[in-house]
């Protein structure tokens, strides 16, 4: 009788931990990655220009551990030029650290949109939306 009680307790604990693992998995999957990935190096965009279709998003991925702060705008000859572009998803020094990533979008209007890293001179990205 006592053994059965222990067995039931173990089963309940197992069920609860399994449920936790399943829900944790769901929340990770909720951060949807876009099919277009833009790789970032230690201090630059490895992919400097990407082309996507209207309605699509991009995912900025650190290819090596680093920290970037991404905003709308561009570096022009070593000078930071923040921009506020109509129809561009707004980023205001959004941090991407370690080997992390962020998804930007969807981009719902055609055009060319500029993003830059506020701490790494000349780290520019152009997103072309067709
Ligand atoms: Cu950076």
TrEMBL record:
InterPro entries cross-referenced by the UniProt entry: BlueCu_1 (IPR000923), Cupredoxin (IPR008972)
Entries under Gene3D superfamilies matching the protein: Cupredoxins - blue copper proteins (2.60.40.420)
Ranges of residues in domain Blue (type 1) copper: 33-129
GO molecular function terms noted in the UniProt entry: copper ion binding; electron transfer activity
Pfam families per the UniProt record, alphabetical: Copper-bind
Secretion signal span: none
Keyword terms: Copper, Metal-binding
PROSITE patterns noted in UniProt: PROKAR_LIPOPROTEIN
Record's protein name: Blue (type 1) copper domain-containing protein
Originating species: Thermosporothrix sp. COM3
Upper classification of the organism: Bacteria, Bacillati, Chloroflexota, Ktedonobacteria, Ktedonobacterales
């Amino acid at each position: 009788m006592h053994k059965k009680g222990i067995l039931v307790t173990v089963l309940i604990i197992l069920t609860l931990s399994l449920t936790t693992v399943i829900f944790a998995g769901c929340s990770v999957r909720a951060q949807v990655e876009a099919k277009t990935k833009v790789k970032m190096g230690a201090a630059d965009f490895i992919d400097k220009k990407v082309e996507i279709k209207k309605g699509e998003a991009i995912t900025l991925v650190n290819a090596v551990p680093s920290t970037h702060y991404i905003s709308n705008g561009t570096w022009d000859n070593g000078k930071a030029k923040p921009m506020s572009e109509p129809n561009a998803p707004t980023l205001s020094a959004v941090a991407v650290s370690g080997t992390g990533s962020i998804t930007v979008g969807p981009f719902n209007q055609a055009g060319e949109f500029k993003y830059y890293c506020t701490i790494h001179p000349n780290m520019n990205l152009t997103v072309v939306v067709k």
